Amino acid sequence: MKKFRNHEDHKPRTCRKRLTGSKALLGLALLGICITLPGCGRSTSTKSGSAGEAGDAAAEAPRGLRVKNAGATPGYVLFSPLLSGTTYVIDEDGQVVHSWESDYAPSGSVYFRENGNLIRTVREPVVEIFKGGGQGGRVQEFTWDGELVWEFVHASADHLLHHDIEPLPNGNFLVISWEKKTVEEARQAGRRPELLPEAGLWPDMILEIEPTRPEGARVVWEWHLWDHLIQDHDPEAENYGDPAAWPWRININGDGKLQEIDPAELERLKALGYVPDDADAEDLNSDLLHTNAVAYNAELDQIVVSTPRFNEIWVIDHSTTTQQAAGSSGGRGGRGGRGGDLLYRWGNPRTYGRGAESDQKLFGQHDVRWVRGGLPGAGHLTVFNNGLEGPEGNYSAIFEIATPLTSEGHYELPESGAFGPSEPVWSYTAPDKVSFSSGFISGAERLANGNTLICSGAQGRFLEVTPDGEIVWEYWTLYSGNIQTPDGSTPHPVGNNTYAVFRATKIPPDHPGLSGRDLKPLDPQPAPVKGPEVPDETGQ
To answer: pTM for the whole thing?
Structure first.
């Protein structure tokens, strides 16, 4: 069995439990639940401190284009509502210029390719085991004219794609997949009995797939969480050691406790199709990481993922072979290569025994990604921090993080401390905090002029902000849908989440995929589509 002992230059430390449950929003955000309904307004950033007045409450906010000021970035916005089989492209005036139709609702992300094709992750209608938030199982590719040219299904009793994928420069894709581990397998790996649902665990794996069009794909590289565990609970189980001495490994008990799931909030998730109708709290607690984003840096040949059950972002070396990725050596990851062990982690150092509750920075986060080369902040990471909590209530923020990457290619780590930085180099919040809040989904990306495009997903609200926090463009989507469930019925009423959107991204006007395309607003415009909607228990 695998054993890990303390390095002789480390003092033994006991793994501390991470923050869970004490913040009302945290556990719910990890499951994909919106708690507040923000309005819109001018915003503030920690760099400049500028502020403006908060806008109307979401329930009163008009939908469509709300702000278009000088300084807004030219281009188009791509998005796919959670309840809809339609993917939209809108222009700067909020007018739809193109759309694609699918028989499936999205599981999460959509991507626009250089040839004008659309890549869309979708929800497999029937799943056997993996009944968690963000479930997928299928990837589709459509031409600009809507022809389905590739479909890949990865759904069985042993594995299921979920949430996000990442297109690679070589034409392949990185995908996130759950894999099933039994209760006995989890015990042998050192999972604490009180943290074990009867259904076992669903740890994640990251696969690189090579499409074999028109159907299927070949796995050409893989990384499994299960190969990189540490635990200090059971000396007789595998992976025993001190998590503080092995911060590059993942403490299988680092999530601290099972989530307490409000039945009413679980029903909202079902209404969105975000989890199946027959899912229960135990199903959701089997989801060990709830990994909801994957991104790639070609220059570094590294992968970053968002793991909200641990409230962390992790960087993994992609330069390894699959064999190296299963071990702890090899690859370009600095200091001789760490194989598939983590190169970097940030957001909650308590998960590896090197921080206190007050050191936690991320809460149920989404959409981690690198700022692309040539853009302001190039090489930094941005992330949508969903579940912050303040005196006036829950709120969200965008963080920009300057990682401690050295010229030698490794991430600096103090001998007994946590990975830096101590604070983001830039952040964005609303002036009153609570008027910008999305408890689930959502994302942000840096634009060429230094602005940041944000999707506040729970409301279907897209806004572009300057580095000083001024909103220069804002749109609230008019579109939702009525994707049917496998039995032919429409989803249940979803209350305030009718317009929810997993993520929105910017397509610049000079994007190769737009070359020669007719981008005039559709005439007539698609009719606004409202999904089922009823007041929730608060009367909102």
So the answer is: 0.87
